[in-house]
Amino acid sequence: MGATDIGLWGVPLAILGGAIRVSTPFIFVSLGEAITERSGRINLGLEGTLVFGAMTAYAVAVMTGSPWLGLLAAAAAGLCFGLFHGWICKFPKVNDIAIGIALMLFGSGLAFFFGKPFIKPKAPNLPAIAFGAWSDIPQVQAALDVNVLFLIGAALSLVLWWAFRNTRAGLIVRVVGDSSDAARAMGLNPNTVRLVATGVGGALAGIGGAYLSLYYPGSWTERISSGQGLMAVALVIFARWNPLGCFAAALLFGGAGALGPALQSVGVTQGYYLFYAAPYILTLIIMIATSSPTRSLTGAPGELSITK
Amino acid sequence: MTERFMLSRRDLLKTSAAGAALGLASAAFPIRAARAAAATVGFIYVGPKDDYGYNQAHAEGAATLKSIEGISIVEEENVPETVDVQKTMESMINLDGASLIFPTSFGYFDPHMLAMCAKFPDVQFRHCGGMWNKDKHPMNAGSYFGYIGMGQYLNGVVAGHTTKSKKLGFVAAKPIPQVLLNINSFLLGARSVDPAITCQVIFTGEWSLAVKEAEATNALVDQGADVVTCHVDSPKVVVETAAGRGAFVCGYHANQSPLAPEKYLTGAEWNWAKVYKMFVDDLIAGKPLPNFTRGGLADAFVKMSPLGPAVNEAARKQFDATLAEMMKGGFSVIKGPLKSNKGAVVATEGQAFVETAIELESMDYLVEGVVGSTA
Asked: Which domains are present in chain A?
C-alpha cells in the first residue's frame, strides 16, 4: 500500500474516485425523484427515506449476515414510504410538498428510533468490482473499486431515459405528469399512476440509503446522510428531469465534493471552506446560465405544483 | 366560521381556573420528586451516545454515576447547538429537577448555557471545554477539560515507529485550539522518533460529516500516509476507511479497536467517569463545585487504549518510557526551539509549555512538519 508517490495526480484521481464513490446515493435518489416528478408529484421526503433505508439495510444485514437482503429490505421500506406519500396525496387539497417535509422528518426520526441498537455492530459490506486490477498503483486500484450499485445506477439511468421516450409505461407516466385532464380522457387514473411512480421513487431512494450504510462510508450512524437526499431532489431540477442528466449531475456532485479533501492532501490548504462550497457554486452558475425569464423550465412536467 | 373559535366569558374563566389548578399541581410535584433523590444530574450530548467517539466517552462517564446512592441522571442526545439546547436545559431543570447540568458540546456554552445560568442561579452548570473565565462568566457556570494532547503525543510516538512512508495523516474537524494542539502533539510525538516525519492534515469543516471524513481519509492514504488519526466527533468512519485501505490508525475520544483490531495501534481516550464522580461527590457532600477543572494522564482524566498487535518492541519501549515521564507531571509537548509551519517562532530555545500552560488553550498555529493551514 501507499508506496507509490503520485503527487498532484492525486487530485484528478480523487475527483474520479470521489465521483464514483460519493455519487451513487445521488444517482438513486435523483432517478427515483425524476420518476415521481415526471408523474406530476414532488416527494421531498426522500431524505427521510434515504436515512430510513440506510438504517434498514444495515439492521437487516447485521441480523441476517447478508448485505443483499439488507438492500432488498431497504428497497421495500422505501417502497412503503413512497406508497404512503402517494396514497395521502391522492386526497383533494393535500399539498405534496408539505407531506414530503413531514415524511422527511418522520423517516429520519423513525430511523433514529429503530437504529439505536445498530450503531455499534458491524455489518457485512456490499461487494465492489476491482476495475483497477490492471494497474499496479494502489491509489488507482482504490479509486477504481466500483461498487455494483454504481453500475446498476448507471444502467438504470440509461434504461429510464430510453423508457420515458419509447415504452408505454414511460409515456403513461409522462402524460399523467403533463396533463391530468388528457390522461383522464385517455382512460388513465392519474392517482394510480402517481401512486406507483412515488412508490418506485421511494424504493430507489431506499437503495441509495443502503449504499451509504453498506458501502460508503459503510456504517450506520445518525449523521450518515448530511443532506444527500435533499440535494438529490434539487439535482432533478438541475438535470431538467432527464435521467441521463441526473446521472451526470450526480457524478459532477460527487467529483466536486472530493475536490476539497484532495486539494488539501496535496498541500493546497488555503480557503478549503471555499472548495467545499464548489458543488453548490457550480449548481448556481449552471442554473443561472440556463434560466430565462421568458420561458418556463424546459422539460418541466406540467402538473408539478412548483411549476404550475 | 370564526365564531367556533371564540370563547365565551364563562368558558374562558373555566379554562383558566383549570389551567391554574394544573399549574399549581405541577409546581408542587417536581419539588417532591426532586427530594426523593439527593440530586439529579443532567447530561446533554450533541450526537448519539454510542458513536464510538466524543459522545460515547461522555455517556460512559455518565453511566458510572448511576451506581451512586441517591443520584439519578437524565440524558438527552442529538441536541443541536442552537436554542434547542436551552429548551433541553429548561426541561431538565423544571421537569426533572436537575441541580447540576453538563452540556458537553463546545457550542453549547455561549450564548445558550450562559443564558440558562442567568435564568437559574441556583442550578450549577459545568461545560466541557476551556471557555469559562472568572472575570467574564457567572459563578454557577464552569468548565472542565482534559489535556488529551498528551495522549495524541503518545499516539504520535507509536505512529512514528510504525510508519514506513514517514507520512502521517490527520482528519480534523475545525481549526480550534484543542484540535490544533492535538495535531501538533501527534506530529511532535512522531518527530521524537524520527525528525523527518511529516503530518498531512485535512479539515472537514464540521464535527460530523461521514462522507467527507471518508473522502479525507482516502485522500490522505492516496498521498502516502500510512498511519491516520483524527479529531472528529465520531472516529468510526475514519478508522474503518483507513483500515480498509491498509493504513494503521490511532484512535481518539474512545477505544475504537473493535472496529479494526489488526490495524489499531493505540488511542487517546477520555476518562470522564473520574471527572463526573469528582463533581458528584462534592455535590453530595454539599461542598461548592470547582469552576475550573483540568487534568491529564497523571490525574486519570485521560487514558490510553491498550497497544495493538502491530505495535513493535521499540515503540512499546518508548511509549512506556514517555508515559512514565508524563505521569510524573511537568512534561512539555510544545518546547523550544520550535517554529510554526509558516516560519514564525512559537517557542524560543529553552522555553517550554507544560500541559497546564494557559497559552496552549489559545493555540492558533500548526508546527513545522504539519502540512496544512488553519484557515
From this structure: 7-290 (1.10.3470)
At residue B3, the pLDDT reads 47
Amino acid type, A21 = R
Domain with residues B149-269+302-371, CATH architecture: 3-Layer(aba) Sandwich (3.40)
Q: Which amino acid is at B247?
A: A
3-state secondary structure of B39: strand
Residues in chain B predicted with pLDDT less than 70, given as ranges, are 1-37
Distance between B203 CA and the closest CA of chain A, angstroms: 8
Homologous superfamily in CATH for domain B37-146? Response regulator (3.40.50.2300)
> Residue B59's closest CA among A120, A200, A39, A15?
A120
Cα distance from A232 to chain B (closest Cα, Å)? 15
Contact call for residues B261 and B46 (beta carbons, < 8 A): no
Q: Inspect the interface and report whether the beta carbons of B223 and A3 lie closer than 8 Å.
A: no
Residues 6+ apart with CB under 8 A from B73: B40, B41, B42, B43, B62, B65, B66
Cα–Cα dist B178/B127, whole Å: 15
Question: What are the extents of the domains in chain B?
Answer: 37-146, 149-269+302-371
Q: Pick B215's closest partner by Cβ from A120, A222, A261.
A: A261
Q: Which residues on chain A are in Cβ contact (under 8 Å) with B341?
A: none
User: pLDDT tens digits for B237-291?
Assistant: 999 999 999 999 999 999 999 999 999 999 999 999 999 999 999 998 888 999 9
Amino acid identity at B356: T
* ipTM for the complex shown: 0.86
Interface check B310 vs A, CB under 8 A: no
- Residue B373 with chain A: CB contacts under 8 Å: 269-270, 272
Interior/surface letters B243-270, b for 16+ CB within 10 angstroms, e for the rest: bbbebbbbbbbbbbbebbeebbbbbbbb
Scanning A133-192 for CB atoms below 8 A from B yields: 138-139, 142-143
Judge residue B366's burial from the number of C-beta atoms within 10 Å of its C-beta, 0-12 exposed, 13-18 middle, 19 or more buried.
buried
Nearest to A267 among B220, B247, B371 (CB): B371
Contact B222 A1 (CB under 8 A): no
